[in-house]
Write a structure and sequence with these properties.
Helix content is about 25%, strand content about 20%. The strands form four sheets. The protein has a six-stranded antiparallel sheet with strand order 1-2-3-4-6-5, with helices on one face. The chain is built from six helices and 14 strands.
């Protein structure tokens, strides 16, 4: 029976790129307690183990994998961590999770990543394979082997021809395997890709979530599309090539996610004129441009211009009418708290009347 120090090997769990992985128990511990031991395959990669240990010593959070023991000087070196019965997220069966269940699960991943960011650690290799389920509702972020720690300076530990992270999840600025100083925004990009995968089971390279064949909302009809329109707003703040347009860190992603969850629970509409908008009155029809609806009937739009009101400054109105019951919704974009909140149409859109 193979043993590393006090750790007795029960069975192999396979191997990763850098280590053999085993399920183990403590020879002198409680019966039935299980742990995971990673044994270094290539001594030339010892820097990765050291970096993973260094990150683990800085991080203590419910949603970060717990390191129990390590021996970097052993031949071969090994790390022992907690055993997560749910396995990696990549093998989880999420079909039984509702949309809100998946969003809340993702939120906990964001908290773990955000804790790392708050402690000067950038993971650089976030993907479903490196997130583990302690139980069905508790994900933990692991495998910090190629992370960047701000307080230790930058040491190049990836090979010259090696890309940091998966090509499906890594941020564009990391795609050449090296940047001078990786930022939390690189992990934010990866978080967006993880969220998309959790909701769709699909992956794609680069920034394609708004293309018709990948757009989450376009895969659903009617009332089922609206929550995904809201999720798209968060994907826009994560899966974007410009780091300056992403959320700043994992905790910021979590905060924006909570707003979206609240809006979904309140049956809010997406503030996007491209989105399918379910009627708030009959909950059966859908809002369409009033101009389009009336033009089909050959009606003259002049009588409804400004609805007989003469506002100061002659602002635009956004006018939506239900194609089922005729309910009308009016909006004044110039009164919106956030300028430019309505998207998807030019200034002279048929949604607008002056």
């Amino acid at each position: 029976m193979k043993q590393y120090g006090k750790w007795v090997v029960d069975r192999s769990l396979g191997e990763g790129g850098q280590a053999h992985i085993f399920l183990v128990h403590d020879a002198g511990g409680e019966q039935g307690d299980k742990y995971v031991l990673k044994r270094l395959k290539n001594p030339a990669r010892i820097a990765r183990f050291e970096r993973e240990v260094r990150a683990a010593l800085k991080l203590e959070h419910e949603n970060v994998l717990k390191i129990i023991e390590y021996d970097i000087d052993n031949e071969p070196a090994f790390i022992v961590s907690e055993y997560c019965a749910g396995g990696p997220l990549s093998r989880a069966h999420l079909s039984g999770y509702t949309l809100l269940d998946r969003l809340r699960l993702f939120g906990k991943i964001c908290l773990g990543v955000g804790h790392a960011h708050s402690n000067g650690v950038v993971h650089r290799d976030l993907k479903p394979d490196n997130i583990f389920l302690r139980d069905a509702a508790t994900p933990v972020v692991g495998d910090f082997g190629i992370c960047f720690t701000a307080d230790s300076g930058w040491e190049r530990i990836t090979l010259t021809d090696e890309v940091a992270g998966s090509r499906f999840y890594t941020a564009p600025e990391l795609a050449d395997g090296f940047v001078e100083r990786p930022q939390p925004s690189a992990d934010v990009y990866s978080l967006g890709k993880i969220l998309y995968w959790m909701l769709s089971g699909r992956v794609f390279e680069r920034e394609k979530h708004r293309l018709k064949e990948f757009d989450l909302a376009s895969q659903f009809r009617g009332r089922y599309a609206t929550p995904y329109e809201l999720v798209n707003e968060l994907l826009d703040r994560t899966i974007t090539v410009d780091p300056g347009k992403r959320c700043d860190a994992g905790n910021i992603v979590f905060n924006e996610l909570q707003v979206i969850i609240d809006r979904i629970e309140a049956r809010a509409h997406a503030l996007d004129l491209r989105a399918t908008q379910l009627c708030m009155y009959c909950a059966d029809g859908f809002y369409r441009p009033l101009a389009d609806a009336d033009s089909r009937a050959g009606a003259d739009l002049t009588p409804v211009t400004n609805f007989g009101i003469t506002p100061v400054g002659a602002p635009d109105w956004i006018i939506l009418a239900c194609d089922k019951c005729g309910n009308v919704q009016l909006f004044r974009p110039d009164h919106a708290g956030a300028k430019g909140v309505w998207r998807g149409r030019a200034h002279n859109s048929p949604y607008r009347a002056r």
